[in-house]
């Protein structure tokens, strides 16, 4: 029954959480499907139009490598519109300058046959598309030349060039077409992929060659329109790149337009240089560039026609919806829209991760509550049920065969029940009750008092054993419930950290940059990771000058003045490339520093001591000084004490509560070995911001604090971990002061004076007599005095850990620079 109830609880917790998540996301999912369907239809129509133009496009008026490469990529990426794309390419080839419809249809058929053959052997994927296109084009063109008996070295070279162009275009289209097929999950394109996209668009424009509307040539208008778009989005580099690529491809399609490459490149560069203005500024730059080159290169008629083409392109550019430009900007690396899309994507991932962590936290919380529920009945009803079961068992074994059964249990039920209850109470108080101690009135009523006593003592022994194991089960359930609750709390805190909103810290970064540059420092980049109080983290890459220490002497004091909090250098590293730059990380300086020293010896001068120690910064502003003494001596005791400290340190670093961490450690040590192994734990958690110290003493001897001429002892009465299933954890909190010396030791040192001496007073006197304030010298001096007290004999494992707390003194004072104001920190959003 317990397994079924536990399983029902777990499944109920999961189903409840996931059901709420699914219900909340159902409406959004339906809406997204409609939006995606609409966008998919729009892009499908665009792909069909592109197929028509690519079917018409040609190079040098005799090569047509575009259509088959495009169809091959569509075959692997959007097979649902493959037949429409094929029809559009067929229609475009019918309207080309030199009709190549027969070649295109034959190449498509050969491509499909080879593809089906590969699919039969399950070796077909997108990576084979370039090879299939090359083979299909080469075989069809070669067969055509052989049929007409016109094969020559020139024709062989030309068909090889067309096949190679098809292969290269297939590779390019593989990179560019997924932008239009909704297969990308995020808006991030590499520069190479942007170039492939531009080549695709320029190839599509070649399908408009020889289309003329009055004095305006369509391909020139579209090419300049494309330059305006990319110049506005990406600036001068993208504008010039688009001009070069577009002009090159258009000149291959029409040899009379070779000058278009220089005209478009120069126009794109001028338009991109004016991108910081607005659309009109970009349009003015393109008009200026095209007019200048047209004036020098062409005739007066060509200049007028170029002006009309530029005006037509500018008109289309000004009529372009802002949403289209923003969509294009999301793909271009380095733009604000691209960075924002990346941040939005990261925010969605962060929110989803935080939601999953919260769901797991809620599952563990529900499991904790289920383990804490004892039963549906209260304790009184359970007690009455257990007593009734006890009475029935005694009555069945003794009264069932008695001739006075009906008289006792039917006629005098209440009297018999009272006597049986009294007998059970007597056995409860005196488990070794003898027959002579049976009350006389009970002997008058019952003929089988001796037998009833024996059976009742036997049943009470079973009853007591059942109570013991039930208590063990209940204690284990409470322990598991507490641990699940602790894990739930840790995961909830993690979810809160994940959900913290990323903040725009550009203003603060610029404020720091301006202040440092006014001091003459060469700053490459500044990244503010966190400005939370007590958790500042700033990363600066600056020009490194050998022989100077600008970070500690200038930058850190200036940051302290700007932020209003002590800032120190956390780490600094030179760049391996030798460019003269180094990365420096600045963080919040702790108000106190801890210096430690350790001294110890193993029993009898052995190699392994059963004592273990640890001094580590936990990462949450606390410094842990810990000492553990394993049972006995030698390697096994050392392993036990090291395990205890390691587990406790990891639990505390994860953010678990101190008391719960101790209880979890106790349960782990009890379960990991069937032998009677235990270890003491003596830990001091020092808050490095205010010096408040929490002592956790589990079975350990007193610790001491030396404050000037006064010695203070800290003690607690707890058993070591790993003995009892449940232990009481007493936490002692004491605020330390600057200059205090904390002394922690194992029983090998504390028990040195013997049993006839007041150990605490003796140890206080020893600590008081040591004059040094250096922790390592203090530990060595105390251990040496213990050796001398025992005349050099080491009777037990001895370890002493000394920690000194000091107020942190900054190496360099803050300074105020004229014109620098105190920084305003953004509000923390949780």
From TrEMBL:
Keyword Transmembrane carried by entry: yes
Keywords, sorted A to Z: Hydrolase, Membrane, Transmembrane, Transmembrane helix
GO molecular function per UniProt: protein serine/threonine phosphatase activity
Regions crossing the membrane: 43-75, 81-114, 126-144, 164-182, 194-213, 225-250, 280-299
Pfam families documented for this protein: SpoIIE (PF07228), SpoIIE_N (PF19732)
Residue intervals of the PPM-type phosphatase domain: 595-805
InterPro entries: Bact_Sigma-Reg (IPR052016), PPM-type-like_dom_sf (IPR036457), PPM-type_phosphatase-like_dom (IPR001932), SpoII_E (IPR014221), SpoIIE_N (IPR045768)
Top-level lineage group: Bacteria
The UniProt record lists the keyword Membrane: yes
The protein's Enzyme Commission number: 3.1.3.16
Name this polypeptide is given: Stage II sporulation protein E
Organism field: Paenibacillus violae
